[in-house]
Write a structure and sequence with these properties.
Elements lengths: L6 E6 L12 H21 L4 E6 L20 H9 L7 E2 L3 H12 L2 H28 L1
Parallel strand pairs: 1-2, 2-3
Bound molecules: NADP nicotinamide-adenine-dinucleotide phosphate.
The site of NADP nicotinamide-adenine-dinucleotide phosphate has 9 residues, from loops.
Keywords: Oxidoreductase
GO cellular component, one term: endoplasmic reticulum
Family: Belongs to the short-chain dehydrogenases/reductases (SDR) family.
Length: 139
Amino acid sequence: MVERKKGVIINVASFAATTFFPLTGTYAATKACMDKFSESLQIEYADKGIIVQCVLPLFVATKMSGMKTTLFCPTPDDYVPSVLKKVGVAKRCFGYWAHELQGFIILSLPRWLITRSALDAVSRHQKISSQTTNEKKEK
Ligand SMILES: NC(=O)c1ccc[n+]([C@@H]2O[C@H](COP(=O)([O-])OP(=O)(O)OC[C@H]3O[C@@H](n4cnc5c(N)ncnc54)[C@H](OP(=O)(O)O)[C@@H]3O)[C@@H](O)[C@H]2O)c1
């Protein structure tokens, strides 16, 4: 990329990188590391024609999340094109309009409410994931 003087690197972090995340602290910490690493690379390689983008998704309906598709939980087919549209436009973004909205609202909340919603989100996710796993086992 440096020789060609162009290139795009898209790092996938998570919304978990943006705030504290009780019960998933290790995951959130690794994602925060990716977020900061990407920011440093952006600066280091900006004058070499390389774009480094960091995306911080909320829930996407994938194998890992085990979540079902909703307005706020897009399929990868909806999420990925939306992220690609932001290459060169937003170096750090949530990547999808509904995630931008959710991210903005959550990060505007007071700390005690973020704590509560993080705990709710994690336990809801754990419940949905185990339901999905059980459904798959039954098939
Ligand atoms: N889905 C979400 O809600 C969400 C939200 C925020 C951030 N993210 C981030 O998005 C990224 C992608 O996740 P996803 O939701 O797209 O998950 P996914 O659909 O389960 O895909 C994960 C991919 O990683 C591969 N993989 C897993 N463990 C691996 C290993 N040890 N070595 C090599 N490859 C491995 C899997 O390969 P196989 O298919 O062969 O198993 C699969 O291709 C992750 O970094 C995740 O933290 C996801």
